[in-house]
Amino acid sequence: MTRIHLAAAALLLNACADQPPAPPRTTTLKPLTEIGGIWYLDQNWDQDARQWYYNTTQGSQIMPYDWFMALVDPATGKPFVESVTTRFGYLAGSPGKWNPDRLPVGFAQDKDADGSAWIGMTCAACHTGDVRINGRTIRVDGAVTTGDLYAFIDGLSKAVHATATDEARFAAFAERVLGPNAPVGKRISLAAKLKSFDKSFAAFVAASTPDTPWGPMRTDAFGMIFNRVSAIDLNLPKNNRAPNAPVSYPYLWDAAHQPKVQWNGLLDNKTAFDALGRNAGEVLGVFGKITLKPPADAAHYYYSSTVRGRNLVAMENQLRALRSPLWPEQVAGRIDPIKAAAGEEIYTRTCGSCHAVLPREKGYDTAPITMVPLFNWPKPKDPQAVLAAYMTMCAAGVDAAVAKGLVSVNYAADPKMALDAVCRKVDTGVIAGVAMPPKLLGGAPLDNPDLAANLLSNAVIGAIFGDIAREPGLIEDLLLGDKAPPPWKGAPEGGWTAASAKSGKYAKPVFDTTPLVKKGAAMTDDHRKLLSVLARQKGGEVQAVSPEATAEAAADTTAKLAETVMSLLAYKARPLDGVWATAPYMHNGSVPNLYEMLLPPEKRSVSFRMGTTAIDPVKVGVDTAAQDNSFVFDTTKPGNRNTGHDFGKDLSDEQRWQLIEYVKSL
């Protein structure tokens, strides 16, 4: 049996004599701030915080930095870096200390220990959004990008190919990279390297081409990460699958406080180590590099990777301070307090049980979520029945399991993403049988084949161990958590890279345990496991898992597996503060606005145009009529279904508008 270790109105109030007095707003709406033509809302970040976050490496390495800056887009004849914003929808960056070359938001330079510089992406590329309202562009930190990831990698591949195969293009490229008087040998070497990269990157793009186009604002995150680790990092092309379960990029405010992350709640988010693991997995999915081979010995029990753990911890700490954006009444129109008050009652009655309301102008430590099951399980207390349904769905699809009476559909949302996450198996190649963490600490060896999710977990843990070996200060960062000083005041310029670690200037003593005894330092089970591995590397004592504990764990494996399956075949309902800035809606971005979210599913748009930064302030969502929309979303394609969430179907139209008015105020 396979195991799983482990997601309108905006009207101005025209007061009439017979209207009751308007209730006061419960929050303070601060003025928008304009910087360089972009307007910012108060989200508890200052300009230092956001610019550091936009431009700091997390370990992604797409291609050599100087190549990227020298590349010309054959479609425009202009520098390719400009096309990242003008053609592919990513946001324009600002020049400054952390961005001297004015890279787009979320694109950053990474450096290896030998000083080699690379262009890469950070989480800001996908989780920072612009919204355009009445002629003003507002940048929303933590919101959804309008970037089109597939269009970007496809365009980059075509630019590289055009350069590598055209003598005139290559000559101009080589001059920009090497200078006008470079020796012939260097030009020949550059040509060979570029042709090799052209071939490998074209193969990557071909393998990443979805049958269902993603378009802007979405990607098949799990599909891309699974392909990257199982097919590219393991060098097993047969593991590749077309990434056909695209999802919207989740918005990040509150995410650091949620107990589970990802649309299907696949990953725990209870400790700093949980968060680091999730973010390290994201790095591996966006061009982070990892060498997957069996550890040579106990002293080197890890995988070498480009994951920059110290930067990831600092980013997560910073995200804990991020707050959701308040509806910008100054440009979008004042919230009608009468309608909003009526909508609050509707929300409490129909929405509040799943979508918690978080306090405003107060700190909070948790952001409650509700996992909404995709299926009804006729025999939920019978593990064998649950696993039979699971195996049937994985092998033959949901319809087959329903036909056999093993499950019935509950939520009716498109299940493809959730099923891919828990069903996909891959060949584990040379690391079959490797446990991360070691078996001594309770790690389970990889089977062959095994679930892609298990392989990813194994790779992530090994990468983190490797990062600690390179950057031991990561231990202290994990323990200090958000008590650590702001990273832009303590980290090297450009963030923590392999080059900064090698210099020794910023490194901590490898086994300095002082942080472990500091007053108030939080020690979790994950931290203890981590430090036990380090102690073992230095010959220290390690508590082995007892035979009794092993036997007890084996006895309830089937029951736990069944419970895990049921918990992961669900989608997350989260707090809705700031949701006005995060369209399109549903996990797969299949509903253009809040108004349609409250309609019966059969009355929603079958297709709609999207890709613009403009929002519709009445229906609250994508302005589907905007001229700069670049993509037609077709809900009839696999993975794009817009059914589910029918909780507004029994509301009157007046109640829908009242509810929307209240949601705008969250």
Walk me through this protein's architecture.
The structure is a single chain. This protein is of the alpha+beta class and 666 residues long. The chain is 38% helix and 11% strand. Among the domains are: 29-217, no CATH class; 329-423 and 572-665, no CATH class. The strands form 10 sheets. It has a 4-stranded mixed β-sheet with strand order 1-2-7-6. Strands 3-5-4 form a 3-stranded antiparallel β-sheet. The protein has a two-stranded antiparallel sheet with strand order 8-9. α8 crosses α9 (272-285) and α10 packs parallel to α17 (473-480). The chain is globular, with a radius of gyration of 25 Å.
Task: Give the helix proportion (percent range).
Answer: 25-40%
Structural class: alpha+beta
Number of helices: 24
Largest sheet, in brief, is: 4 strands, mixed
In whole angstroms, how far apart are the ends? Answer: 45 Å
- Number of E strands: 23
Mean pLDDT: 86
- The amount of beta strand, in percent, is 5-15%
**How large is the radius of gyration?**
25 Å
Q: Which blocks of ≥5 consecutive residues have pLDDT under 50?
A: 1-26, 504-524, 526-545
Morphology: globular
Strand adjacency order, main sheet: 1-2-7-6
Short description:
By secondary structure, the protein is α+β, with helices and mostly antiparallel strands. It is built from 24 helices and 23 strands. The chain has a four-stranded mixed β-sheet with strand order 1-2-7-6. Strands 3-5-4 form a three-stranded antiparallel β-sheet.
